[in-house]
Amino acid sequence: MTDTTVPTDANVQTGLGRFGEFGGRYVPEALVAALEELDEQRLKANHDPGFIGELAELHRSYTGRPSIITEVPRFAEHCGGARVVLKREDLNHTGSHKINNVLGQALLTKRMGKTRVIAETGAGQHGVATATAAALLGLDCVIYMGRVDTERQALNVARMRLLGAQVVPVDHGSRTLKDAVNEAFRDWVANVEHSHYVLGTVTGPYPFPEMVRDFHRIIGVEARQQVLDAYGRLPDAICACVGGGSNAMGIFHRFIDDSGVRLIGLEAAGEGLESGRHAARFSGQAIPGVLHGAFTYVLQDEDGQTVESHSVSAGLDYPSVGPEHSFLRDSGRAEYDSITDDEAMEAFRLLARTEGILPAIESAHALAGAMKVGRDLGPEGFVLVSLSGRGDKDVDSAARWFGLLDEGEV
Length: 410
Ligand SMILES: Cc1ncc(COP(=O)(O)O)c(C=O)c1O
Prior knowledge:
Layout: E1 18-19, E2 22-23, H1 29-46, H2 49-63, E3 69-71, H3 73-76, E4 83-88, H4 98-111, E5 116-121, H5 125-137, E6 140-146, H6 147-152, H7 154-162, E7 166-170, H8 177-191, E8 195-197, H9 208-216, H10 218-231, E9 237-241, H11 246-252, E10 262-270, E11 287-291, E12 294-298, H12 323-331, E13 334-340, H13 341-355, H14 361-377, E14 382-387, H15 395-401
Parallel strand pairs: 4-14, 5-6, 5-8, 6-7, 9-10, 9-14, 10-13
Antiparallel strand pairs: 1-2, 3-4, 11-12
Helix pairs in contact: 2-4, 4-5, 4-9, 5-7, 9-11, 10-11, 13-14
The structure holds pyridoxal-5'-phosphate.
């Protein structure tokens, strides 16, 4: 898809899926009817007891919801003594929060009478979740993945193929998530009559940002009740990593009206903001522009060309961010900070050693954020962390990072 810096009047769809000035629908004509059908179906489904019941039953008996919360006191000793509680999306079937959205979209695909799903994936978790739902519901499935990501997430490539999906490595551009999204959109334009694009995060053209958020909202709905039941109070701060921003929107949304709760999104500072090798849209040089169908903050140069992002975590390595985050940031309701690769890997090791939990490297960014905010808050503080995924997919990367394998074992 074409990247442009500022939308012109011709392609602005006023009022459609806007969060302030952000969001909208910037797509080729060929996709408009499919997006309208999707919007109609998902709005109907939101009020249909049959759909709501079917999704709730899948969450209960397939995903394993509600996911539990876990207090981590030994880890919290490194967070200024603040109370730290994890929302355990890592325990979901397939290993991350991504399944919440995918099951909802896969059910909608059936309702639209479509037989094939397309998805993009960075860390592979969204691809695995989509391949899983496709197997469960009998849909054909094609997953686009940047070549670099197929190498750093080889385990997930094998998982998707075992589940019956076709995985297509993408060799354009930086060969990471942005390029996979471009390919997925191209496929969708060509096959839109029988295919649905299961977009994996809270970005893209309307209605994706709103729909994906709504499917992930369950994270915050459950967590809010769970912390009230267990501790009788709301947290002071919520930390969540932000790639496109789906797990963060999922846990933040139910707390937006709780003005005493700080919402803190953690982006990837990669090798450091000064290095230029990062994916920190809000802390870096991002300015609003259009990427992948939405008007939102995008890392770009003065000519409006999208700048390549970098992160040790494939799932955060994306030059843009969901439009609702852009709105929450500019309106001041949410704060965004960035975490370097080194800081994230240190938090990864710390959670493993102190609590026996291997987090996804993406989620380790949120843990590193909790270490910073916990030190600000002190021993009276209470931080809720979205542990968006488990680290099985990252064992190889982490073992290399920490030099744990002898030659010949690599
Ligand atoms: C475990 C995990 N957490 C977080 C992310 C980032 O995505 P999002 O910002 O949409 O939650 C990914 C993406 O692949 C992921 O696999």
